Amino acid sequence: MSTFRRRLVGAWPHLRAIFVGYHVLAVVVLSLPSAGAMTSDSMWRSANFKADVAGYAGALGSLGVEMTPEELTQRLRAAAFSFAGVRTAIAWPFDRYARLVGARQGWAMFASPQRHPAELHVEIKVEGAWRTIYRPHDESADWRGETMRHNRMRKYAGRFARGFIPKNYDELASWLATEASVDHPQATAVRVRLYRYRSLPPEKVRAGERPAGHYERERTFDAAELRP
Q1: Cβ atoms 88, 35 nearer than 8 A
Q2: Could you give the CA distance from residue 131 to residue 141 in angstroms, rounded to a whole number?
Q3: Which run of H or of E encompasses 102?
Q4: Contact call for residues 217 and 156 (beta carbons, < 8 A)
Q5: 3-state secondary structure of 107
Q6: Of 61, 110, 122, 159, which residue is most buried, by most CB within 10 angstroms?
Q7: Confidence (pTM)
Q8: In this structure, are residues 190 and 223 in contact, taking their beta carbons and an 8 Å threshold?
């Protein structure tokens, strides 16, 4: 065995320890919230975030710290931008490593709970009366349930509650209406709507209450025109 190889074998435990330590440190640092979500203007303007801040301001008020939601938003925004600057500075030594091994996290996970969800409902009109054929969490209206519960479909439909894009919604509504018209030849019309509501607090959910909401983004189709 050559001198270089003997030195390499002897140094390997130390090199391995350095690499493992670097990797663990990279995981810890890169797991800190990224600047993307915190510095996004759309997040600070969203109804979901404003509702969160109003709740935080109310909680502070109950502790004797009087602060309006607007004042709290300004303080949180300043703190978020300061944190984002620090995070960027300490993360740069690990960014190239994350890109090299494909371990980057490109989206914010659990940034804010969705308190104003919008359910996708599908209805058909039979003999002049509307009947719901798909509604989430309803066994009596579970048309194409396996497809509608697929993780990609749920993710896609869930986006309509946060950032509504008319083109995407219209295309999905048209496809759902076409499929429903084929599966239900007795239908004369198909309607796709979003049911928007505010999530209930835990104590009301445990009491068996159901949230009350309203319909929006209605799209109605003539079933006969949809069938091939």
Answers
A1: yes
A2: 9
A3: none
A4: no
A5: coil
A6: 122
A7: 0.64
A8: yes
Q: Which residues contact 102 (CB under 8 A, 6 or more apart)?
A: none
Write out the E strands in 135-212. 189-197
Which value, in Å, is the radius of gyration of the alpha carbons in the chain?
26
Q: In the prediction, which pLDDT does 127 show?
A: 95
- Shortest CA distance to 197 belongs to which of 155, 107, 137, 124? 137
User: How many angstroms separate the Cα of 194 from the Cα of each of 50, 53, 97, 117, 134?
Assistant: 22, 25, 43, 9, 12
Tell me how many degrees the CA angle 49-29-77 measures, rounded to the nearest 5: 30
How many other CB atoms sit within 10 Å of the CB of residue 172? Answer: 17
Please count the CA atoms within 13 angstroms of the CA of 218 that sit on its side-chain side. Answer: 9
Q: Domain spans of the chain? A: 3-101, 118-226
Euclidean distance between CA atoms 4 and 8, whole angstroms: 6
Q: Which two tokens stand for residue 5?
A: 């190889």
- Convert 202-219 into a string of H (helix), E (strand) and C (coil): HHHHHCCCCCCEEEEEEE
Predicted confidence (pLDDT) per residue in 195-207, tens digit: 999 888 889 889 9
pLDDT mean over 55-84: 88
Q: Is 221 helix (H, G, I), strand (E, B) or coil?
A: strand
Q: Which two tokens stand for residue 14?
A: 């130390």
Chain segment 139-150, per-residue pLDDT in tens: 999 999 999 999
Query: H/E element holding 64?
Result: none
Strand blocks (E) in the chain: 118-126, 129-134, 189-197, 213-222
Is 96 in contact with 26 (CB distance < 8 Å)?
no
